[in-house]
Design a protein that fits this description.
This protein has about 160 residues and is of the alpha/beta class. Helix content is about 25%, strand content about 30%. The strands form two sheets. Strands 4-3-2-5-6-7 form a six-stranded mixed sheet, with helices on both faces. The radius of gyration is 18 Å and the shape is globular. Its EC number is 2.4.2.22.
């Protein structure tokens, strides 16, 4: 069994990667609208909406488990304005196992699917991504972490810690 590694994405990096994605998407547009996959796709979708000058923003919410059991993925918020997805851009922060992406693709078969980061298992389910991440890497997004004060090394050395 391989140990899980962690990759921390800062706000600055997320913004740069979203702008990079927007630049690549420019020739594929204009898009009628954007569908953000909640929750991770909300912030990248907002950045893309600004960069692509897109005003129609929808969201889709998929849950794969509840408090008591893991089960079949279920759409709990449908992107009504997107129809079958034709002309729409679907955005997420990360495609990992592909479970959510598969459900979204079934619901919006004609949409263009883009995300910031993709793991090998989920990569075939996205049309475009900025960076590939190893499957055993846990991505820590800025909304998952908080900046903490860390004492300087010199202070640690004098305290014997």
């Amino acid at each position: 069994m391989t140990a899980t590694t962690y990759a921390t994405v800062t706000w600055d990096q997320l913004h740069r990667d979203a702008r990079t994605l927007a630049e690549t998407l420019m020739p594929k547009g204009p898009f009628k609208g954007i569908v953000a996959i909640t929750r991770g796709g909300l912030i990248p979708a907002a950045i893309l909406a600004r960069e692509l000058d897109c005003r129609l923003i929808e969201s889709i919410s998929v849950v794969t488990y509840d408090e008591e059991s893991k089960g079949t993925p279920k759409i709990i918020k449908d992107p009504q304005a997107a129809g079958d997805g034709e002309g729409f851009l679907v955005v997420d922060d990360l495609v990992d196992s592909g479970i959510t992406a598969r459900v979204v693709r079934e619901r919006l078969p004609k949409a263009f699917f883009a995300c910031l980061y993709a793991k090998p298992t989920g990569k075939p389910l996205t049309d475009l991504f900025v960076m590939e991440v190893p499957q055993d890497t846990w991505v820590l997004f800025p909304w998952d972490t908080a900046p903490l004060f860390i004492a300087p090394l010199a202070k640690k050395a004098t305290n014997g810690n």
